[in-house]
Amino acid sequence: MTDKKPVQIRMSDYPATGNARDIWRVTHDSLRPVEDGEVLVRLDYISIDPGMRGWITNKRSYMPPVKPGGVMRAFGVGEIVESRATGLAVGDQVTGFTGVQTHGVFKQENLRKVGIPGVPPHTFLSGLGMTGYTGYFGMTDIGQPKEGETVVVSAASGAVGSIAAQIAKLAGARVVGIAGGPDKCSYLIDELGLDAAIDYKKGDISAALNANCPDGIDLYFDNVGGDILSAVLNQMNYQGRIVVCGGISQYGDFASAAGPANFMTVVTHSLSMRGFTMRDYMHRVPEALDWLVPAWKERRIKFREHIVEGIENFPNAFDMIFDGKNHGKLLLKLG
Amino acid sequence: MTDKKPVQIRMSDYPATGNARDIWRVTHDSLRPVEDGEVLVRLDYISIDPGMRGWITNKRSYMPPVKPGGVMRAFGVGEIVESRATGLAVGDQVTGFTGVQTHGVFKQENLRKVGIPGVPPHTFLSGLGMTGYTGYFGMTDIGQPKEGETVVVSAASGAVGSIAAQIAKLAGARVVGIAGGPDKCSYLIDELGLDAAIDYKKGDISAALNANCPDGIDLYFDNVGGDILSAVLNQMNYQGRIVVCGGISQYGDFASAAGPANFMTVVTHSLSMRGFTMRDYMHRVPEALDWLVPAWKERRIKFREHIVEGIENFPNAFDMIFDGKNHGKLLLKLG
């Protein structure tokens, strides 16, 4: 069936504190047999995403949390090594909610083929995957940047933010990115071509926003929540829009993440705030791919990947994303 | 010119604490002469509104704050007693930002005539005035309730909330009102015909919402912010809408009113939040009147007024609105 013993990363229980270090268990369980309509997939890459923090929080959310003892939920990409499904053949590249494991048996309808000539399969876990679609729909469908507007994007060097920021730039907006550290800020200017970059680790974000947004802020693409959201709120223009996409700074205590301290600005400045997850747009993924794939091939948009090797390094990779230590979309390479 | 000495209520300075008790000064200054294009108005009623708290807070907002020493800003309605303006005649009823004073000289363009047969002029400070328009536009233009939806309105017996709640009811929604005390709750059911009323003073708003909104909450018209907003957020349906209209519970510390504790629900449930003030809709007031005046005459919508007499009672009336002691739109009757 498979040449190597399968390996799984399981969540033993929900983390009692913000630190999830102790909850991971490695198992080597055999796979169940492949039944009609199913395939066996050898996973090659796993996507590590901030949203995972919500999946290990025992609270009503946009998805049920992972069950204690279950394989950790994750997107993955891999190759079919055995098929009893009519629409999928051995050798096909597929993606889906595969979990953090080296191999898995899946129903055909839970996988999507990702074979596009000239596009490496793991790319569908990064810029051409869920994070790319998230940046695409959040900016084009909700944010709707217009020429001449000032757009601020937080976590702008990240997997979602970098796509969102580049789309706003292509729309003709003045785009100011917020990121942590000089390397990420240089990347925003030199590689992505943003108009300005703010290093939040230097402190006084309000002064930096004020200096870099002389006409105020029309649109804020929020990936982090917390203090940065509060600082941006104070400089939003009348009838400004806020796309609320994440809240990485709050994921450590996801269930009780507090709103901005100066919330009444929403009323006094007639702001609109729209939260979303990719759940809202799953039926429109082909639309995102139609735009993203040629834009990436023609280098109108760029993205970076940060690849960690070995399934045993999943706990380290998981921690990296909350410490901001990854440069680009974090992927776990297996086998 | 006038038969009585004019009286003004002035703000001596911005309140140092949440309590505004000590900032009011009564003056008896003479009026400046009426010049070309101006009129002298004898004010009959002054509107007391929660938004006043923002006007005496020294912070950038949708309007500049009142200047220390200046007449307190307010809407008023009165009768023209002297006119040097071509469009306004002695005896005309007018409304506008008149300030808290018994008489005032105003430019013609800053006033609006309010003479509609069968409608008492002071009604244009209550259900047919700014608070009525606020409820109307907030619910019809932003909220857009649909038949069968569950709509929750806080401060539902208040001047804005009662109009908003009745409009949602007329749209065919199940409407649950939140108010303080048994009298206000009876009013919601018996007079306004809402489907359920929650007395927030009884505690455990979450349990009451759960009991009265078995299908979750599709639309929340928020007049209060604070803990009630947090409780509602936890029971919002996927892609629910929140109209953020006020934040009375936060006005005491307006400048730093905190957002809801469970802000990440905006992301996980794909919620939209839209803040607004009447500033956004001033150009559409005739549209609101076209709907509200016949609806009120035909008793499809109702509203209550709470009238306090005497300009010297302004400080008491101002405090009442934040203590929730008024039943209906609070007006100050002069002279």
At a glance:
The structure is a homodimer of 335-residue chains. Chain A is an alpha/beta fold and 335 residues long. In chain A, 25% of the residues lie in helices and 25% in strands.
- Terminus-to-terminus distance of chain A: 16 Å
Q: Tell me the fraction of residues in β-strands of chain A, as a range.
A: 25-35%
Fraction in helix of chain A: 10-25%
How many helices of chain A? The count is 9
Q: How many domains make up the coordinates of chain A?
A: 2
- How many strands, which pairing sense, and closed or not: the largest β-sheet of chain A? 7 strands, mixed
Fill in the CATH topology of the largest domain in chain A: Quinone Oxidoreductase, Chain A, domain 1
Overall strand count of chain A? 15
